[in-house]
Automatic annotation (TrEMBL):
The gene is ahpD. It comes from Sinosporangium siamense. Antioxidant protein with alkyl hydroperoxidase activity. Required for the reduction of the AhpC active site cysteine residues and for the regeneration of the AhpC enzyme activity. This is Alkyl hydroperoxide reductase AhpD. Disulfide bonds join 131-134. It catalyses: N(6)-[(R)-dihydrolipoyl]-L-lysyl-[lipoyl-carrier protein] + a hydroperoxide = N(6)-[(R)-lipoyl]-L-lysyl-[lipoyl-carrier protein] + an alcohol + H2O.
Length: 178
């Protein structure tokens, strides 16, 4: 199970996605842990069984057990936070930003891995889930810690490509049943 298996599964019309998947997983300036944690967290955010199976197997070969668990935690906590913060933002009443969320999210403060890596993974998942408020927050933390914009953009590119792989493969699977 691997990136190569996903590339093989993509239809001819998704050649750009196939090439981008190869590129984002082999030419990264992110650390190995940042790269594969981002890939894993994004795979989980897509909810695609096939993408999760293939990419989690490959990520396991690059991540320590602690980092693997932390990447899963990033996907989980952002699944909650992205809904909450996107909703309070979309309502348009700034009063909601002054009310405590009262949602437990201690894993963000103590993820079990380098906090910067966890922030990268949270940013990427927030991109897939479409939460502007979370994207802004995680980007600011990363920038304040000295991460260059090019590396932040790289995490966003990984999110975009992993999501496109999932959408394409899930779409093909659905069309096959029609």
């Amino acid at each position: 199970m691997s990136v190569d298996a996903l590339k093989e599964a993509l239809p001819a019309y998704a050649k750009d996605i196939k090439l981008n998947l190869g590129s984002v997983t082999t030419t990264s300036s992110l650390t190995d842990q940042q790269l594969w944690g981002t890939v894993l967290a994004c795979a989980l955010a897509t909810r695609s069984r096939q993408v999760i199976a293939e990419l989690s197997a490959e990520a396991a070969g690059h991540l320590s057990p602690e980092a693997f668990t932390a990447a899963k935690a990033a996907a989980a906590i952002m699944a909650m936070n992205n809904v909450y913060y996107r909703s309070t933002h979309l309502i348009g009443d700034e009063t909601y930003t002054t009310i405590p969320a009262r949602l437990r999210m201690t894993v963000i403060g103590n993820p079990g891995v380098d906090k910067l890596d966890f922030e990268v993974w949270s940013l990427a998942v927030s991109a897939i889930n479409g939460c502007g408020r979370c994207l802004e927050s995680h980007e600011q933390v990363l920038r304040k810690s000295g991460m260059p914009r090019e590396q932040i953009q790289e995490a966003l590119r990984i999110a975009a490509v992993v999501n496109a792989v999932a959408v394409t493969l899930e779409g093909e699977a659905a069309l096959a049943t029609v």
